[in-house]
Amino acid sequence: MSADGDDVPGFSRQATADAGDVLAAVRARAARRAAQTAASPAALREGTQGGAAAGREATGRGRAKPRAFDFSALPVMKELQFTAAAGQVMGVDSPFFRVCEGRGAATARIEGADRINFSSYDYLGLNQTGAVLEAAKAAIDRYGVSCSGSRVVGGERPFHAALERALAAIYDAEDAVAMVSGHATNVTTIGSLMGKEDLVLCDELAHNSALEGARLSGATRRSFPHNDLDWVERLLETERSRFGRVLIVVEGLYSMDGDTPDLARLIDIKNAHDCWLMVDEAHALGVLGPTGRGLAEAQGVDPRSVEIWMGTLSKTLASTGGYIAGSSALIQVLKARAPGFVFSVGLSAPLSAAALAALEVMAREPERVARLRDNGLALRAALRARGLDTGLSEGHAVTPVVLGDSPTAAAVAHLALLKGLSAPPILHPAVPERRARLRFFVSSEHTAAHIERAADIVAEAVAEAPEITARLGLS
């Protein structure tokens, strides 16, 4: 979706257009490598590229074309092949699906070696905390590892209500509902609340799950320029009367850039134009505010002024799942009509117990939140001191190092890993091509030494990366 209303599933027109010459050059060179492989006698004999031999075998009548249901013929496979070939040209392994051989702590054993770890969003270190781990183990002993049914019919357990009360209390809300997936929580909530007569307004940097929920709903969808509330106000002044319900979706802390929206102004806008406001707190809970209660606490706003608070259990709360907090009527509607809740198994005992215990630790140990805040500011300062571009980061738990294009970001991440740092690259189409980056997730458990060494490694890797990207003919 884009600000002018054109829909491109998962990302905006600008994100697509910005790929430009860099991706064209990468693809051209990678395509030549892929074509050489495809043209080899062995490949032709084996039909690995969906060539004539495979086509004849599929049809039995000599037609030399891949079957319509052959997944290898999908356009996305060509993109994956191009990416793999580009990595081969540069001598860079895929930066994705790297194996962490233990807990994702401040340091972790990744791909067989110990690294400083900025790739895990265990913001308050609660995935390493005894009280959280023991709560999960005790829940398994009592309830087992699965609810073995939808909560609507047989899967309801006492710990569900306990967790939901604790989540609602964070926002001084009447009620909450916990679901088995953060992504599914956004998709099913937006998808079930909105319809074809409605409008969903998403910040252009909102998570994919919000975009998918808007698409599923059948509502008119618009994305607005990042944090541009003047744009939102102008649109509503001219277009609000065309729609039934209107939902504005923002994030409490943006997961790619580490900045925040102006919550008080958003509330004024939605009140003036009779809209619902939904705030995704996936990366804000445990991070923003003196006690980690999120954006409202950080900005001194009454959380009851927001209709829909959404969050995940997988970051600060060291578990898995998502939640919605709001009015009792909202929660009743979702428990009755949201497909991702009604037709899904209930959140399991160990995951529920871990999240509840994590909330309790967060409440009684606010010093964890303070350490995280100090570490976030320290990392941003260290990176900037070395001339690195930290983009829009406000120095919270998420800080990017913007590098300019996907090959450079992949090369820097590769070199950094070799030097002992795990910080994942974020590439097009997850971000616009010219904004490819490394993304750092900061923890309260990182030390000053971790932060300074990480900044040194990135600076070294950035200096060395042109030697790698030159193999693609880009420098």
TrEMBL record:
<feature type="compositionally biased region" description="Low complexity">
    <location>
        <begin position="37"/>
        <end position="47"/>
    </location>
</feature>
<dbReference type="InterPro" id="IPR004839">
    <property type="entry name" value="Aminotransferase_I/II_large"/>
</dbReference>
<protein>
    <submittedName>
        <fullName>8-amino-7-oxononanoate synthase</fullName>
    </submittedName>
</protein>
<dbReference type="GO" id="GO:0016740">
    <property type="term" value="F:transferase activity"/>
</dbReference>
<dbReference type="GO" id="GO:0030170">
    <property type="term" value="F:pyridoxal phosphate binding"/>
</dbReference>
<dbReference type="InterPro" id="IPR015424">
    <property type="entry name" value="PyrdxlP-dep_Trfase"/>
</dbReference>
<dbReference type="Pfam" id="PF00155">
    <property type="entry name" value="Aminotran_1_2"/>
</dbReference>
<keyword id="KW-0808">Transferase</keyword>
<dbReference type="InterPro" id="IPR015421">
    <property type="entry name" value="PyrdxlP-dep_Trfase_major"/>
</dbReference>
<feature type="domain" description="Aminotransferase class I/classII large">
    <location>
        <begin position="114"/>
        <end position="456"/>
    </location>
</feature>
<dbReference type="InterPro" id="IPR050087">
    <property type="entry name" value="AON_synthase_class-II"/>
</dbReference>
<feature type="region of interest" description="Disordered">
    <location>
        <begin position="37"/>
        <end position="63"/>
    </location>
</feature>
<dbReference type="InterPro" id="IPR015422">
    <property type="entry name" value="PyrdxlP-dep_Trfase_small"/>
</dbReference>
